[in-house]
Design goal:
The chain has 104 residues and is mostly helical. The chain has 2 helices and no strands. It has one domain. It is 55% helix and 0% strand. It binds zinc ion.
């Protein structure tokens, strides 16, 4: 699921668009319409990003002489990129977990 593949068969893509899962797997016919990940994928993406970015921000503040606008630009760019990059894997993993636990 985190790789964007069908959690049941790994034979087809799980997402029809960036965060929209396919209605049904074209390889194994698993119906994905009953899975609603809701707010959990953004929570996971923000949690991971926060734990990675906090030490980076502290290290940049302690060991560099960057001006605050440059530091804001660097940190905001890294944070937004990381959150957006983690959203789809987090949603795929949540859908896979829901499917594995029979929560559909
Ligand atoms: Zn499948």
């Amino acid at each position: 699921g985190a790789r964007g593949h069908c959690p049941r068969c790994d034979g087809a893509r799980l997402f029809a668009a960036w965060l929209r899962p396919v209605a049904q797997c074209p390889a194994c016919a698993q119906d994905w319409r009953g899975h609603s990940a809701d707010d959990f994928p953004p929570y996971v993406a923000i949690l991971i990003t926060g734990h990675v970015m906090a030490p980076v921000i502290i290290a940049l503040g302690l060991h560099t002489t960057l001006s605050w606008p440059v530091m804001m630009g660097v940190c905001l760019t890294m944070t937004v990129t990381m959150v957006l990059g983690l959203l789809q894997p987090a949603k795929g993993a949540v859908i896979a977990l829901q499917w594995w636990l029979g929560l559909h």
